[in-house]
Hints:
Blueprint: E1 6-9, E2 14-15, E3 26-27, E4 32-38, E5 41-42, E6 45-46, E7 53-56, E8 62-65, E9 70-72
Antiparallel strand pairs: 1-4, 1-9, 2-3, 4-7, 5-6, 7-8
Amino acid sequence: MNVGDRIRVKTSVVVYHHPEHKKTAFDIQGLEGEILAFVTEWQGRPVSANFPILVKFDKKFRAHLREDEIEVL
């Protein structure tokens, strides 16, 4: 898995920050997106993020996911 890879969400992941479904539960299972970054440091210091993979799904929607929740296309 590398930055720029196309991915698909393979498990049920419920988010509450999707732009078209604000403040309501929305399952993103099956959505496809692109890996933007792996979160390993913040302001030069290492971090151990619970959801280290930042994925961009469209212009307004991004989410942090775990490796076991996605599959590379």
